[in-house]
Design goal:
- There is one protein chain.
- The chain has about 625 residues and is α+β, with helices and mostly antiparallel strands.
- Helix content is about 50%, strand content about 10%.
- The chain is built from 29 helices and 14 strands.
- Helix 11 packs across helix 15, helix 16 runs parallel beside helix 18 and helix 23 packs parallel to helix 25.
- The N and C termini lie far apart (about 110 Å).
- About 40% of the residues are buried.
Length: about 625
């Protein structure tokens, strides 16, 4: 029987397999002086690099988690290999022919095919599929590629292939190559039924950082394909974990490390388009959302730590799905030390379509026009509201504050609060206060979670449109309407300046509209059925109900002239204050250099409103004496 690998051959493998070459396939290393290199540890999550490699000694050690060893130990730990599997893999790479001792002593192996055999089967499958792309049956596949601007050289660069439509073509081919049914099944190349996993589809090989093919992504081409899904990916296998795989990382990893930049796109063709256009740091997830495990993989190649100035750029569509994806990415933003950005094409084109329609330069410009991720997310949140309305600004500030309060990196909160204040058009201190209130309302677990949970569950529109009637913001409106309904003769002569826009709550506005339609408060003087008439005229149940409430609620005091004037002038002053805030908000969002006429006009309106407000305050203070 096969025995142990000879010790002298193991020593030869250790000598020839440079540890820095092997480690750099998983981690971006920088010179650390004294002949050592340093990077982020692949065995634990860290912000500052503590993982050291000494090529001359052939050892690695992490001062953060304590992991260490030689090149064989590293490969065993990083890819979950046995000692023998790690030696065999290294021997193959450095060209060492392994010999084994005679005898029946065998190395203990885990159950199932060894990793090496699964990888070899996938390499054989990739070569087979690539050959099939030139077959007559693959005409539709070649047309698909050509329509997207990918020629034969592009297909060869990315290893694109075609799976024949017959049920067991790959299976028979691999069997002739010496692979067992178990190896094909465990690796996900054939299904439990014994048929090829991918049939009649265009295929992209999915490779790990070292370049080993570990899975495939398959695109539907034919209408009679029994599987409706547009894309199929390899299922979870011992060598393929979709949450830890990034398509294109084998081609992009060195440039990611050199440039300290990674571009995250959404699909295989987008990765191809980016690389062919010169954006050679592009990668994509494989049939799943970008998650924490993907972040950890990417950080190792970015050399993502406090001393670096890296960038992670997400490309999303500008539609609702793209905004939702941006919120998810924002939820994991604190996984990176590097700055996070979003690149969105105004026309809504993904990188592949953009390259087809506008050329390679447009793809490069898309990435160059990136905007900070937090700004993109906050802009989308704030953009849902009418900022020219006071209640719109309040609601925008509240939702934006919930988003900002969810940020795990507390050092960024103040900067994001300032950005939110500028977007909404409110004072920075007001934004900070709202962020603090949002943080206090947030349960501890939710606060530690990502921002997406808070931002992707907005309040229903009906609740946002009709706030609580008892909200203190609307107290003057309610008390003024109490006077209108209970004492129309007393207040009647003072309401000439009051209009529907003085009521910001939609239900109270509805009450005033009924009053105005009935002829104003004076029309109710001496009419004992005044409240009933208003109620009967209401078509909105909420308005009808609040009229009943207003008619019976006790006033704070018996209304005299001073009490009436206090409410009327205060109501008018609040309207003036809202208009002032609205103009200030627009001024804050208007560039005086680019829009001088509009800016000056608003500035004049602001001065007039301030004078009007001072006059109301003077009348209010005069009525109190």
């Amino acid at each position: 029987m096969t025995g142990r690998i000879r010790e002298e051959d193991i020593a030869t493998v250790r000598e020839k397999a440079r540890i820095d070459d092997v480690v750099s396939q998983y981690v971006t290393l920088r010179n650390a002086g004294g002949g050592s290199q340093k990077g982020l540890c692949p065995f634990h999550d860290e912000k500052s690099p503590s993982f050291n490699v000494n090529p001359s000694r052939g050892f690695f050690h992490c001062f953060g988690c304590g992991e260490g060893g030689d090149v064989i130990t590293f490969l065993m730990k990083i890819d979950a290999l046995t000692f023998g599997e790690a030696v065999e893999r290294l021997a193959e790479k450095v060209g060492v022919q392994l010999r084994r001792e005679e005898g029946d002593v065998r190395e203990e192996r885990p159950k199932g095919p060894p990793r090496r055999r699964l990888v070899e089967a996938h390499l054989a499958a990739q070569s087979f599929y690539a050959e099939q792309l030139a077959s007559p049956d693959a005409l539709v596949a070649r047309q698909f590629l050509a329509e997207r601007g990918f020629d034969q050289s592009a297909a060869e660069l990315f290893g694109v292939g075609f799976a024949p439509r017959e049920g067991a073509t790959l299976k028979n081919h691999l069997r002739q190559q010496g692979f067992s049914a178990e190896e094909m099944t465990v690796g996900g190349l054939i299904g439990p039924s014994g048929y090829d996993r991918f049939r009649g589809r265009l295929l992209w090989p999915i490779r790990d950082a070292s370049g080993d093919t570990i899975g495939f992504g398959a695109r539907r081409l034919f209408d009679d394909d029994r599987v409706e899904a547009k894309y199929l990916n390899t299922s979870e296998t011992p060598i393929y974990k979709k949450s830890q795989v990034l398509y294109g990382i084998d081609l992009a990893r060195r440039e990611i490390g050199r440039a300290s930049r990674a571009v995250i796109v959404e699909g295989y063709t987008d990765v191809m388009a980016c690389h062919l256009a010169g954006v050679t740091t592009a990668v994509a997830t494989c049939g799943t959302a970008f998650g924490d495990d993907h972040s950890r993989v990417l950080r190792r190649f970015l050399n993502d730590h406090e001393e670096s100035r890296g960038e992670v750029i997400f490309t999303f569509d500008g539609d609702a799905a793209g905004q939702k994806a941006a919120l998810r990415a924002f939820g994991g933003d604190q996984n990176f030390v590097s700055q996070t950005y979003v690149a969105v094409e105004p026309d809504g084109l993904d990188p592949c379509d953009l390259r087809i329609q506008k050329g390679d330069a447009a793809v490069r410009e898309l990435v160059a026009r990136r905007v900070p991720l937090y700004r993109f997310v906050l802009t989308n949140v704030v953009g849902k509201y009418d900022l020219d309305r006071a209640d719109g600004r309040v609601d925008a500030l509240r939702e934006g504050a919930r988003l900002v309060s969810s940020i795990r990196d507390r050092s960024k909160v103040d900067a994001f609060a300032r950005e939110l204040a500028g977007m909404v058009g409110v004072d920075v201190d007001e934004a900070r206060a709202e962020v603090r209130r949002a943080a206090n309302r947030r349960p501890g677990q939710e606060q530690r979670g990502g921002a997406a949970a808070a931002a992707t569950t907005p309040e229903p529109q009906s609740r946002a449109a009709v706030p609580d009637l008892g909200d203190p913001r609307f107290a003057i409106e309610r008390e003024t309407l109490q006077l209108v309904i209970q004492h129309p003769m007393t207040i009647g002569r003072s309401t000439g300046d009051i209009g529907v826009n003085d009521f910001t709550h939609p239900t109270y506005r509805g009450v005033w509209e009924l009053v105005a339609a009935a002829g104003g408060p004076g029309a109710g003087a001496g009419d004992p059925t005044w409240a009933s008439r208003l109620r009967d005229a209401a078509t909105d149940p909420a308005v009808s109900a609040v009229i009943s409430a207003l008619a019976v609620e006790p006033l704070k005091k018996e209304p005299d002239a001073a009490y009436v004037a206090e409410h009327v002038f205060r109501l008018l002053e609040l309207t003036a204050a809202r208009r002032i805030a609205a103009i200030k908000s627009r001024l804050q969002r208007t560039n005086p250099v680019e829009q001088p006429e509009e800016f000056n006009k608003m500035f004049g309106e602001l001065a007039a409103l301030e004078a009007h407000r001072r006059g109301l305050r003077d009348r209010l203070s005069g009525s109190a004496t």
